[in-house]
Write a structure and sequence with these properties.
Belongs to the peptidase C1 family. It comes from Ligilactobacillus acidipiscis. One of its GO terms (biological process) is proteolysis. Its main location: cytoplasm. This protein is α+β, with helices and mostly antiparallel strands. The protein folds into 2 domains: 210 residues, Cysteine proteinases (Cathepsin B, Chain A, Alpha-Beta Complex); 174 residues, Alpha-Beta Complex (Cathepsin B, Chain A). Strands 1, 4, 5, 6, 7, 8, 9, 10, 11, 12, 13 and 14 form a 12-stranded mixed beta sheet that branches. Strand 10 and strand 11 form a beta hairpin. Helix 10 packs antiparallel against helix 11. It is globular and about 75 Å long. The two termini are 41 Å apart. The model has no long low-confidence stretch (mean pLDDT 97).
Length: 444
């Protein structure tokens, strides 16, 4: 039975407010300054002093500007760190995010078309179809998705395929492409409903992809097939590599065995027992490419493998809910940064599992761990390379408290050699398939 708020209840609420000591002081402060500025704790900045016992030299930070390519920037940043170390390129050297962005948009379009065809017999009111049409494609992605692109197309230096207006400010392109994809979905579903042949359907899909390719070429430039890589190293020695392909460039200058790098998550919800593999239905970009796969582990293991990789001298891609208890300008992510509970005299606490289950949190951003402060061999805070340019944080680097990692970090990517033997074995199991809208399928 529904019940409206009564006049007596309102009277009681006001009387309770009047009883709160300092209520008028708090009211004046919040109405003038807002919630966060009023509740910020200056001691957090003191505790988040950006000094670390392990601190990798990774060069200058990148800037994704007005785009949602953090997952791509973070992955390419971890790779360029090795190029810095092994080839002594300039601190501002970057791999081309526009190049991988081009292929991601084309591949996501094909992935969307295939999912439209798979669900064409379902009504548009079906939750899966509705989920597909809500966002046919977007800038966000996952580690395994950028690896699928690199395995197929390689990488190039940013100097070979630089940023464009549409890659740095992607809103117009995404709106236009999603309009096209939804329109194409109407036609593909109608073709299936009319019992068109597979040959006719694939021919129409091919024409659609040709149009997407043209949109990408106009917006990001034509993708490079071969190029000359020319640079001077930090010792001023001149180098040139002529007529190299993007895949040859990756093999020579990055040289990773990409199969060695695996996604580790901490999703402490009841439906995801630890030490098992998970994937997400309809999550990906490259059809028949690398599958998104996660190994769910407890936070002690999660933290331990990240520390081991940093100790080895290698940075760590990670995904988190960056907007929680963080200050973008100061570059601080700390559970003690704001005291909203004290300000309002309300208990806002939720467990990590509750936040995931009830929509309060999920992964929204990917960055790179480039350092950690160990006290008695236990981490107290972490150095984070962001991709928001050098005018935030400490020249673009953030500080994350260890307690913040516990609560709001959901994914790290590490070399599987840092996992215990039993977890390396768990990587081989067939993953449980999660629903498309599962929080562990969120895109950074």
């Amino acid at each position: 039975m529904t019940k409206a708020i009564t006049a007596d209840q309102l009277k009681n609420y006001q009387q309770d407010l009047d009883k709160h000591e300092g209520a008028q002081v708090a009211e004046r402060a919040v109405t003038k300054n807002g919630i966060l500025a009023t509740s910020i704790d200056y001691r957090s900045k003191i505790n988040m002093n950006p000094v670390f016992s392990i601190d990798l030299d990774t060069g200058e930070v990148a800037n994704q500007k007005q785009s949602g390519r953090c997952w791509m920037f973070a992955a390419l940043n971890t790779m360029r760190h090795d190029i810095h170390n092994n080839f002594k390129v300039a601190d501002d050297f970057e791999l081309s995010q526009s190049y991988t962005y081009f292929w991601d948009k084309l591949e996501k379009a094909n992935y969307f078309y295939e999912n439209v065809l798979k669900t064409a017999d379902l009504p548009t009111s079906d939750r899966k179809v509705s989920w597909l049409m809500t966002t046919p494609q977007q800038d966000g992605g996952q580690w395994d998705m950028v690896i699928a692109l690199i395995q197929k197309y390689g990488v190039v230096p940013q100097s070979v395929m630089p940023e464009t207006k549409s890659s740095s400010a992607s809103g117009e392109f995404n709106s236009t492409l999603n309009l096209k994809l939804r329109k194409d979905a109407v036609e593909l579903r109608e073709l299936v409903a009319s019992k068109a042949s597979d040959e006719d359907i694939q021919a129409r899909k091919d024409k659609m992809l040709n149009e997407v390719y043209r949109m990408c070429a106009y917006s990001f430039g034509e993708p490079t097939q071969t190029f000359d890589f020319e640079y001077r190293d930090k010792d001023n020695n001149y180098h040139i590599d002529q007529n190299i392909t993007p895949r040859e460039f990756f093999d020579k200058y990055v040289g990773w065995n990409l199969d060695d790098y695996v996604s580790i998550i901490n999703g402490p919800t009841d439906d995801k027992p630890y030490n098992h593999m998970y994937t997400v239905e309809m999550l990906g970009n490259v059809v028949d490419g690398r599958q998104v796969r996660h190994l769910n582990v407890d936070m002690n293991t999660f933290r331990d493998v990240a520390v081991k990789q940093l100790k080895s001298g290698e940075s760590v891609w990670f995904g988190c809910d960056v907007g929680q208890s963080s200050d973008r300008q100061q570059g601080i992510m700390d559970t003690e940064l704001y005291s909203n509970d004290e300000l309002f005299d309300i208990d806002f606490s939720m467990s990590k599992a509750e936040r995931l289950d009830y929509g309060e949190s999920l992964m929204t951003h990917a960055m790179v761990l480039t350092g950690v402060d160990l006290v008695n061999d236990q981490p107290t805070k972490w150095k984070v390379e962001n991709s928001w340019g050098n005018k935030v944080g400490t020249k673009g680097f953030f500080v994350m408290s260890d307690s913040w990692m516990d609560e709001y970090c959901y994914q790290v990517v590490v070399n599987k050699k840092f996992l215990p033997a039993e977890l390396q074995e768990a990587l081989k199991e067939e993953p449980k398939v999660l629903a498309p809208w599962d929080p562990m399928g969120s895109l950074a």
